[in-house]
Specification:
alpha+beta, two-stranded antiparallel ribbon, 11 helices
Length: 264
């Protein structure tokens, strides 16, 4: 089991919300009231964005955090005002180091840094060029302030594949299910190659998890969170992931029949 947080530990996302409400928002309304409609504030990344941060997460990039996203570039004088505002904020909150942004950036710049483009594609081929884990990230950016709604609309525009793109992604993953779980796994087992058998079983398990995300119309995260979040999608997903665990935990001597049976 992963190291869980104490019951009174709010986690990174809640800490970020509290820091914003207690410190950032009052200061923003007091010093930059004219700029509030032109900015959005959100949590810019990390496992706290999707609620899976635990005690292990605290060794890197963890803590109360926020970013300031601009609807459009500011004139130099206003950009300097925002920089001074950010520098004035406390560096610690409730005993935790605050991850303060150095500057505000336009939402275009930020989204491009996450998925490689600033706005959701209109061409299906362009959707296919974006790695799925990037789409997971850009659709898990909790907003703390978005008075005019521009940031929420932008992030929401990436939420779902167009239908033909979804079908293409699903067909590709089903092909790899057959490749790793049937063809190559059986050959490795027949040869008695336990290392290759393990490798193909792990690849098969990875594709199963990605298929589950697609069937639930969700984007799959990158490898660190793939299996954990897949098991949380639904009771069916939890059961399937438990079945995959049986293959991973089986003794190598049993793989030749147990793993093949599970794959089939």
């Amino acid at each position: 089991m992963p190291p869980t947080r104490p019951s009174d530990d709010p986690g990174g996302l809640e800490l970020s919300r509290r820091f914003f409400q207690d410190v950032v928002l009052p200061a923003l309304q007091r010093t930059l009231p004219d700029l509030v409609p032109a900015v959005a504030v959100g949590v810019p990344g990390g496992s706290q964005c999707h609620g899976h941060d635990d005690l292990v997460s605290r060794d890197h990039g963890w803590g109360p955090a926020f970013a300031v996203w601009l609807r459009s570039p500011l004139v130099p004088a206003d950009a300097e005002r925002v920089d001074r505002f950010l520098l004035s904020l406390p560096k610690e909150y409730c005993g935790h180091r605050v991850l303060l942004p150095e500057h505000a950036v336009t939402l275009d710049e930020y989204v491009r840094s996450v998925v490689g483009i600033a706005v959701a594609p209109t061409d299906p081929v362009d959707w296919l060029r974006i790695p799925e884990e990037w789409l997971f990230e850009v659709t898990h950016r909790p907003l703390l302030l978005d008075v005019s709604g521009f940031a929420g609309l932008r992030f929401a525009s990436f939420l779902n594949y167009p239908e033909d793109v979804w079908r293409k992604r699903l067909a590709a993953q089903l092909f790899w299910l057959s490749e790793w779980g049937m063809k190559h796994l059986k050959r490795a087992q027949t040869r008695g190659d336990s290392r290759a058998t393990m490798m193909y079983w792990v690849r098969f398990s990875e594709v199963v998890a990605k298929v589950l995300f697609l069937l639930h119309r969700r984007f799959a995260p990158y490898h660190k969170w793939l299996f954990r979040i897949a098991s949380e999608l639904s009771p069916m997903s939890e059961s399937i992931m438990s079945t995959l665990d049986q293959g991973l935990l089986s003794a190598p001597a049993l793989w030749s029949h147990e793993m093949r049976g599970i794959a089939e």
